[in-house]
Amino acid sequence: MTRLSLPKRVDGHDRPQAVIAPSILSSDFARLADECKRMVDLGADWLHVDVMDGHFVPNLTLGPPIVASLRKHTDAFLDCHLMTTNPELWVKDFAKAGADMVTFHLEAAAGPEPDDWHSLRPDAAHPAVVDMCHGVRAAGLHVGLALRPATPVELAVPYIEQGLVDMVLVMTVEPGFGGQSFMADKAAKAAVLRKKFPDLLIQVDGGLAPSTIDRAAAAGANVIVAGSAIFGAPDPGAVIRQLRESVTAAAISGKAPH
Ligand code: DX5
Ligand code: ZN
Which residues participate directly in catalysis (predicted)? Predict the structure, then answer.
């Protein structure tokens, strides 16, 4: 059984309710429990946990032992974004550590070699990706499917249509580092999914801030990850509110494409 439930779409909205997920990558890791509590107190819905293996991306961050430590200090929804090759190796460890959702990269699930993702097709589900989705659910976790900026969004469709994923993460920077510039044309990929799937959770991650949120909101995103824009702000609570207001306004006015 999954520990915490996912947001739903309410009447009059064109997407599920807004979720604001500060990325702890931008927090002070030496004070992680306090930083997480601060974000939840300021209105964060989820905490976004960036897991990097130094292989899928050129950076190293954290893994299941830190999630397990953090779980002792917070009841918050832990949204774990795995930027790793062989993501299937880590699912059980994250479940045991107390994660709520595992989002893995479609490109990595297709196989361990950098070119393996070229075998993905928009009209047929890849067996390894299907197995990965089943594995995450079987571990009692919600399932997220992440796409690098260069990956065509249509490649996610077979898994959504088969009901295998709860959320698609559209990366709006090249994964690996916080503080990069938002790629508006990549956020536009969300619109393709929103048009087909009004109830799907669509997450955007990378460069989200009060100055860029309207582009992502207009494309239909409802789960907003922000690291530097929240942790680096003098008033992080005000940024969380601004991000939520932009998404909710777009959801009500139906700014997303129909
Ligand atoms: C990048 C990570 C992001 C990162 C976002 O690889 O997946 O979650 O923390 O940081 P900002 O919001 O600073 O771009
Ligand atoms: Zn992330």
Answer: 50 (proton acceptor), 205 (proton donor)
pTM above 0.90, yes or no: yes
Test site for ligand 1: of 147, 177, 183, 213, most ligand atoms within 8 A of the Cβ: 177
DSSP state of 140: T
In the reported structure, the alpha carbon of residue 129 is separated from the centroid of ligand 2 by a whole-number distance in angstroms of 20
- Pocket test of ligand 1: the residue of 26, 52, 147, 203 to mutate, having most ligand atoms within 8 Å of its CB, is 26
Query: Distance of CA 89 to CAs 8, 85, 109, 114, 126, Å?
Result: 30, 9, 11, 17, 18
Chain Cα centroid distance, residue 9: 18
Index of the ligand 1 atom closest to the CA of residue 25: 9
User: pLDDT tens digits for the chain (258 residues)?
Assistant: 789 999 999 999 999 999 999 999 999 999 999 999 999 999 999 999 999 999 999 999 999 999 999 999 999 999 999 999 999 999 999 999 999 999 999 999 999 999 999 999 999 999 999 999 999 999 999 999 999 999 999 999 999 999 999 999 999 999 999 999 999 999 999 999 999 999 999 999 999 999 999 999 999 999 999 999 999 999 999 999 999 999 999 999 875 554
**Cβ 198 under 6 angstroms from ligand 1:** no
Count of beta carbons in the 10 Å neighbourhood of residue 61: 18
* Ion ligand 2 contact residues with beta carbon within 5 A: 50, 81, 205
